[in-house]
Amino acid sequence: MAILPAGVWGTALAVPASAAGRRVRLWRRTPGWAESWDRGHPALPGLKLPENVVACDSAQAAVSDADLVILSPAGAGLRPVCRLVRPHLRPDAVIVCATKSIEPETHLLVHQVVEEELPGHRGRIVALSGPNFAHEVAAGLPTGAVAACPDLSLADWVQQALMTDRFRVYTNPDLVGVELAGALKNVIALGAGISDGLGMGDNARAALITRGLVEMARLGRAMGANPLTFAGLAGMGDLVLSCTGDSSRNRRAGLAIGRGQSAEAFLAETGLTVEGITTARAGWQLAQRLGVRMPITEAIYQVLYEGLPPLTAMERLMARPRAHELEEVAGADLKPPFDP
Questions:
Q1: What pLDDT sits at residue 328?
Q2: Range of the domain at 307
């Protein structure tokens, strides 16, 4: 098994993979990192990976002969990593995507980007998602995840390869729904952070999480996903974690924005990758193209890209026309005498 790159999330995934008995090869782009590797990651203090995890000084060394290759870059790095490994992959290798994003320029989901870059592996792509903070996975704390692929035999195989008594993996055939949920929850987590930064309280956060989930499922349904996926680990599970956990980068960015800092200043100050910022634009543009109503996503997009003050965005959301919850949640054929 190979994991690329060995960033925080990739290194953390080596913990359950190695505990499941697999030999794991890690690679990252930093020159000379394999020679100075101390069997851990600087952002994961205290982590000491076992002997069946090895560092490789080239992507070729990592993926050659690997039957399972986990790609774990940030969204912007997905195509470059695919191009780097493409010449060296086994034809029958299974590609596991642990990235949560929507490509800004194309609005493609992660597996669609991988299909373009690795056409020989079309149909052999599995998404790995769920409510997973890397430092907790690395520490061996109990975690749930989901492996998604229309070919459930491949999802089952990935489940077996990664599952331990501390990292429980479920399977799901809904690849589109799992990937879309993992990307869009970052946007709603930004909104929850903005609300908390404004001091709007626990009630507002709970409403944003719940109605944000409706928006995620609404777009998913328009793209052919199973709405029930959004009630699972990749949907509600990851959404709640990202909207409430102090380790959530998207929530932290939202808190800063709600308190008056710009997104650009937050990124410059922290050096963090915050996927929700680019996904807000891609998700909103995708919703516009498909004619899907996503008012929370729209408001976050306007705050980030159109200069709308966060407080004004919150006030506009609260002042929207009356709506029927069941019509939107259950898809019931209800026709209220007002504009939903």
A1: 52
A2: 176-325
